[in-house]
Amino acid sequence: MNTYVTGSTIRQLRETKHLTQAELATKLSVSAKTISKWETAKGLPDISLLEPLAAALGVSVLELMQGEPVVNQNRAANLLRSKLYVCPVCGNVLHATGQAVVSCCGITLPPLDISEADDADEHHQLTLERVEDELFVTIHHPMTKDHYISFIACLTGDKLQLVKLYPEGDASCRFKITGAGVLYFYCNRHGLMKAPDFRAAARHTPPQKLHLREPDEGDREQVMAYREEFLAISSRMDGTSALDKYADFDAWLAQLRKLKDPATTPAGLVPATEYLALDEHEHLVGMTNLRHYLNDYLLTYGGHIGYGVRPSERRRGYAAEMLRLALSYCSSLGLDRVMISCNADNEGSRRTILRRGGVLEREFRHSGDTVQIYWIILSDGNGA
């Protein structure tokens, strides 16, 4: 214990409560002379008296010992004037509508004043997309055990929505849009930050047109940069034919060519074609893998199409366009219906599949996740 209650604090709090030394003494069952000794630094209250002393003076024990009474100025409980608290020991996140004395793991926590939050910098970039009445948020940031985003919060005048994040997970979430508000997030190394203007960032910008083509030797640089972007945030690399396992671009490209040709497809696998999804400037936005038919394993767990969008391009509508283009290629293979799987908690992927007419067949648990299986009928609305 580095501090203890001081006489000047006792006197200040007593006078604020308009109590005489005798009146305070009566409340504590001590003499007025004892109170005088405390206030003139000729003695200290026994530790057993700290709780009743604090109660008599109308403060907490922590406020009494710190000598700084905490007064909540936000009596209207406007959540845009909230205080957030983060424990540096256990990572616990606490919220108060105004100034408070908050402790965790034996530590008195300083408030994170949202009005003083730093603007997001070049190392903490966000992608925001509004889909109907929800805002999808992705922060392009490492999620390692030593450096990660602890939480993302959306505050409006009367509502707080807070999503706790954890190392080795995804730095993404979604919020219900209930009015004008502010987005905040907390980096365990750099502290509390706020997103750019909520309303402007939430406007949906139509994606650029995409086209699919197979990769070749000229794509080496941007394919490997694509790979590094996923590895930097420990994100799954769906639809890439195991690109994460290939540090050598040439070896990956050679494997793609083996997989495409039925004569060289390895045993246990099915012929498949890998496509790059490129925008009008030939910038690599995502990848999709198209299996020509299904074996027993794919019929149970996988599907015809695997696809993914690079982290820096997510929440811009590209996934929907990639799926539309992939379904067109499925039609050229003579398929009349296509199976696609997605994790049940991947709301963006689920919505994309449903928009293309996906019908849920079943769901099951696999490797700790709930997986959903959808079928899409290739008709006039799909594969065109």
Q: Per DSSP, what share of the residues sits in E-state strands of 2 or more residues?
A: 25-35%
Q: What's the oligomerization state? A: single chain
Main beta-sheet strand count, sense and barrel state: 5 strands, mixed
CATH class category label of the largest domain: Alpha Beta
Distance between the termini: 73 Å
Rg value: 30 Å
Strand order of the largest sheet: 6-13-12-9-10
Protein model, in words:
- The strands form six sheets. This protein has a five-stranded mixed sheet with strand order 6-13-12-9-10, with no helix packed on it.
- It is elongated, with a radius of gyration of 30 Å.
- It folds into three domains: 7-66, 434 Repressor (Amino-terminal Domain) (Orthogonal Bundle), CATH 1.10.260; 79-202, Immunoglobulin-like, CATH 2.60.40; 211-377, Gcn5-related N-acetyltransferase (GNAT) (Aminopeptidase).
- The protein contains eleven helices and 20 strands.
- The protein is of the alpha+beta class and 384 residues long.
- The protein has helices spanning 7-16, 21-28, 32-39, 50-57, 61-66, 198-202, 220-232, 249-260, 296-301, 318-332, 347-355; strands at 83-86, 93-96, 103-104, 107-108, 112-113, 118-119, 125-131, 134-140, 149-155, 160-164, 172-176, 182-187, 191-194, 211-213, 272-278, 284-291, 305-309, 337-343, 359-366, 369-377.
- Residues 201-205 have low confidence and may be disordered.
- Helix 2 (21-28) packs across helix 3.
